[in-house]
Each structure stands twice: as structure tokens, then as C-alpha cells.
Amino acid sequence: MKPRVFSGMQPSGNLHIGNYLGALKNWVRIQPDYEAVFCIVDLHAVTLYQDPAELRAKILELAALYLAAGIDPHQSAIMVQSSVAAHAELAWMLTCVTPVGWLERMTQYKTKAAVQETVGDGLLQYPVLMAADILLYQAAIVPVGDDQAQHLELTRDIAQRFNSLYGETFVMPATSLPTVGARIMGLDDPSKKMSKSEAGAGHAISLLDPPATIRKKIMRATTDSAPAVDFALLGPGVENLLNIYQAFSGWDAEQMRAHFAGLRYGDLKKQVAEMVVASLEPLQQRYREIAAEPGYVDGILRQGAERVAPIANSTVELVKRRMGLYAPC
Ligand code: ATP
Ligand code: LTN
Predict the structure, then answer these.
(1) pLDDT of 263 over the 90 cut
(2) 190 lines ligand 2 (CB under 6 A)
(3) Residue ranges of the domains in the chain?
(4) How confident is the model over 130-160, as pLDDT tens digits?
(5) Mutation choice for ligand 2 from 4, 5, 7, 196, CB with most ligand atoms inside 8 A
(6) Ligand number, closest to the Cα atom of 126
(7) Is residue 2 among the annotated active site residues?
(8) Which of 5, 7, 9, 19 to mutate to test the pocket of ligand 1 (most atoms within 8 A of CB)?
(9) For residue 129, pLDDT beyond 90
(10) CB of 222 closer than 6 angstroms to any ligand 2 atom
(11) What pLDDT does 86 receive?
């Protein structure tokens, strides 16, 4: 049997090239070698307020983007987190073995809580629900971007604590980061990671941005005061543009140097823009085809949930037995 892989994204905001290069592209690459579950984590999205009608639309849009990027529903399950109740159930059980101090140390929690007037308990519990997502399927690896590495460490800590309290139950999941593209930075400010929740118009390239918008955003990207690419002295803005090119092209470091050393920033930007436009074109085309077929995505999501629910439910049953909760034979 193939080892299992699990990953997910929140259906909030617009998916950007950071999400694609950091996670989605890797999912597509590894799916033939694993029994994969790719989740739309709507319960995570509501840790911050979401407009209900918009959230419903975003869930279907995200599923269509998974498909358009190349997730094959015959190979991999695509499912919505809230449609398999075991996610929330296991999260509660794991909450009970997780010290609050572990959660308060999470960087994402601290950043998100800092800009909230009142902090919902869900925001603090966010990584426990994420641990439940992964451990429910006994996933061997979890392909994510760099910003999720800390949550993955916590997942292993929670699993270890549960195993030592109640006996070997969970498989330890390994983090899988891409070699290039694990952390794409904002085009307007290369000191911050590209993020869906960042508002600025020139911050992120959305996967569904039209070519003219992509070109405009890249041509306006923040660089530095040097005139041309110098690999001995790369500023963060230029490094980010080179990273984007390398992640889309699949070139190695030697090819990158040979091609870009000494190139003026204006020309670098033009080449990056054309690489991004050409790479996203087939995805955008497939997205339009999928979006034109009403009911198709709902069917895929229903099948996905039906396929994974027995796995999830059997883990919950095992955890119940281990903990002494009532689990009739
Ligand atoms: P938000 O800003 O709302 O937290 P986000 O842009 O971080 O959203 P998520 O849904 O949290 O997006 O992340 C989905 C996946 O994309 C995760 O695996 C995450 O690590 C990855 N990812 C997010 N931003 C980047 C980035 N800038 N570079 C590389 N990978 C990223
Ligand atoms: N927290 C993740 C989304 C997420 C996830 C998961 C990723 C929720 N559950 C399980 C991998 C495995 C994020 O990208 N913000």
C-alpha cells in the first residue's frame, strides 16, 4: 500500500503564486507516489470572521483550483474539512493533551492575534485542528510552505505526547518543503511573506490574475538601487524575483546564474513576468473549463468525503478506545 500524504489550504482570500509554488505544485508532483488527501480547510478559515456567502463560493473556487492545477480526483481525494465530522472530533481529543503554552508560542497565532480586537479561542486552537487533520489519516508526509513548519513540529509534539500517555497510536508525520519556492515574498515588500490576507494591490500575484495584471505587478515589484543582477550582492526583492523564476522554470542554480548574471532589472522583470504568465496560462484555461460545468466540483467533493470518511472514523474509534471513551464494540 502507498504511504499517505495530507495537506490543505484555507478557502479565504485569493490563492497566490506563493501557495502554488510552496504547496500546490508539490502536491501535483508527488500525488502518483502516495495515497493523497487534499483538503479545503473551511473550519480553519472561520477562526477569523468570513462572510458566509463568500466562504461558500471560495470553497468551490479552491476545489476548482486544486483540479485546475492538476490534482487528479481519480488518484487523490479532494474533500472539505467540515464534511467529515471526525476532524472536529479528534481535534477535541487532542486539545485535551495539548498544553496552552505550546499554542501561545506559535508565530502565526501571535501575528494574527496581535491585529484582533478580541481573540477567538479558535485562533489559539488552530494548530490542534491542523494536527487532527494530519493524524486522522496517519499521514507519513505533509507538503507545505515554510511558514507551516512550526505547526508541523507541534503536530509531532502532540502525537508524541498522546502516544506516550495512551500507547502507540499515531504515525509521526514528516514535513516536506519544496527546495525552491518554500517562501515567496511580497512583491511590494520583500521582507514579508506573500500572503492571502495582505491587502495591497501590488502585494501578491493571484493564480487567476489576467496576464496584463501579472505583468503590471511584476514590473512594479520592489527591488533595490543597483542597476543589474549581481549574484554576490542580491537584495531581497531581486532574490525573490529570481526565486519565482527558478521555481516555475525548474532550472538549477547554475542555469540561473548563467542566464541572469549582469541582466538589468527591467529585463529581469520582463522575463519573470513572461515565465509567470506562460506557466499560469494552462491552469487558468482549465479553471475556466471546470467553472463552466455546474455541479462537477460538488460531485468531486462528495466522492472525496465518502472515500476518506472510513479512514477518519476508524482513527477516531481507535483514539476513543485508547482514551477509555465509550466505544461500543
Ligand atoms: P493567510 O495569509 O490567509 O494566512 P496564506 O497565504 O498563508 O494565507 P494558507 O492557506 O495559510 O495561505 O496556506 C496554504 C499553503 O500555502 C500552505 O502550505 C502554506 O505554507 C503555503 N504558503 C502560503 N504562503 C506562502 C508563501 N508566501 N510562499 C510559499 N508557500 C506559501
Ligand atoms: N494551516 C495550514 C492549512 C492546513 C494544513 C492542514 C496544512 C490546515 N490543516 C493540515 C497541512 C496539513 C495553512 O496553510 N495555513
Answers:
(1) yes
(2) no
(3) 4-177+294-323, 211-290
(4) 999 999 999 999 999 999 999 999 999 999 9
(5) 7
(6) 2
(7) no
(8) 19
(9) yes
(10) no
(11) 98
- For the question of residue 112 being annotated catalytic, the response is yes
Q: Which residues lie below 8 Å from residue 231, measured CB to CB, with a gap of 6+?
A: 257, 260, 261
Q: Coil, strand or helix: which one is 175?
A: strand
The predicted pLDDT at position 197 comes to: 83
Residue 188's pLDDT band, with cuts at 50, 70 and 90, is: very high
d(CA 59, CA 322): 34
- Count of residues in the chain: 329
Distance between CA atoms of 329 and 312, rounded to whole angstroms?
17
58 lines ligand 2 (CB under 6 A): no
Residue 11: which pLDDT band, with cuts at 50, 70 and 90?
A: very high
Residue 192 is a catalytic residue: no
Atom 8 in ligand 1: residue holding the nearest Cα: 196
Phi, psi of 193 (to 5 degrees): -70, 145
CA–CA distance, 293 with 304 (Å, rounded to integer): 18
Give me the pLDDT at residue 208, please.
Answer: 97
Query: Does domain 211-290 match CATH 1.10.240.10?
Result: yes
Q: Point out the ligand nearest to the CA of residue 135.
A: 2
Asked if domains 4-177+294-323 and 211-290 share a fold, the reply is no
- Predicted structure pTM score: 0.96
Q: Would you put residue 228 in left (φ > 0), alpha (ψ -120 to 50) or beta?
A: beta
Average pLDDT over all residues of the chain: 97
**CA pair distance 152, 212, nearest whole angstrom:** 37
Residue pLDDT, tens place only, 206-239: 999 999 999 999 999 999 999 999 999 999 999 9
Fold of 4-177+294-323: Rossmann fold (3.40.50)
Radius of gyration of the chain (CA): 21
Grid coordinates representing 62?
A: 479552491
Q: Supply the pLDDT for residue 88.
A: 98
Q: How confident is the model at residue 16 (pLDDT cuts 50, 70, 90)?
A: very high
Ligand 2 centroid to residue 241 C-alpha, Å: 26
Question: Which amino acid, one-letter code, is at 79?
Answer: M
